Amino acid sequence: MQKSHSFLKEIMNFSMSFVQSSMVALTDANGNLLSANDVFLDIVYGSKNDLMSANITNILRQDVPWWNQVISNVKQNGLWFDYIYLKDKNEQKVETFFQMSDYSEDRDIYMILLTPIQTFHECEELQRLVYIDELTGVPNLRSFRELLAEKMKQSKSKIGILFIDIDNFKKINDQFGHVVGDSLLQKCAEIVVNACKGKGKVFRKSGDEFLMIIDQTMDIDAVKDSIDLQFSKEVMVGHQSFMVDISMGYSVYPDDGEAEEDLLRFADMAMYKEKNRNKLNRDE
């Protein structure tokens, strides 16, 4: 699958429409504020002279490890975004949509855009970009994490996590090209959603990997059987047909872990065991 920067361009284009009502600031790699617009100064500081001793982590009520993680993500992906609270000059909390991107890579300078939530909610399309996978149209990993955290916090019953991997996607993608590969991923997402409709929610993790949250763990085997059945048939992409091999593994909260990381690791291990079994069966 070809890496696309259209998502970054699209979300930053939407962000630009908010600049007049958003707080904009430049920082160095350590979070020290270098410059800010008038909106930032009006809400957070009284004058530009106050910026000389200010650090963005204090304003955002975050620690240094959090900041280092944000810097790492920006360097890797070009953009970082999240919901976050900041502290205004009256010590009041302000909920914002936080975006950070490279401003000057050679000098390690970063641009921060803080959009008040009431402004952010005026743009439903921007919310869609935050929580929906651009290619397949299913909820993304951020959506998975937030929903799982909410369910683990509220649920008094077990929750199933299903990990789905397309085994031969790279081979198809390399042989037929990125356009066909992307179309195949879209079709696979559609098949998975239809196969388990009413029994869980599907998310795209990354690449050729999908996740599913299943509220009733008794449905896990039925969901797996339904997905297997759908992928036992040829998948049509335009005028071409493909036999798509998949592997699945699952974990159960809280039996296999009480944290997202543990549940995903357990499901991933189970998926790879099935992948190895499938490979042996195909080689026989």
TrEMBL record:
Gene3D superfamilies: 3.30.70.270. InterPro entries: DGC-Regulatory_Protein, GGDEF_dom, Nucleotide_cyclase, Rev_trsase/Diguanyl_cyclase. Residues 157-284 form the GGDEF domain. CDD domains: GGDEF. NCBIfam families: GGDEF. This is GGDEF domain-containing protein. It comes from Salibacterium lacus.
